[in-house]
Fold this protein.
Amino acid sequence: MQYFVADFLNPNTQLSIIDGKGEIIDQQTVRLEPSEYVNQLAEYLIELSHENHLYHDDIKAIGLSIENVNSIDYTDVTQLVTELESKFGFTATVEDNHDTLIKSLTES
């Protein structure tokens, strides 16, 4: 199984697809509009996954590393997780630390 990982590095977001051991399969850096963050995140990650011949059934979860959700126009983490899960159709995890996020994703 693979995982989507997004690291918010204001103003850019580093997108990654990782395997179950946390190894990077592919990576790309993009700039997303805060008001359209989840929608644009989905577009870019789907495109990146298709470039790697990965589709919905190949992805287990999405993780977002972000220190302050207000930076992308969200008021709380719960709302952001709900919108990510709704948009992507699988489990979402939001952490404020990249290493903690990778561990949460790959050990779940």
Observations:
- The mean pLDDT is 96.
- Strands lie at 2-9, 12-19, 24-31, 59-65, 91-95.
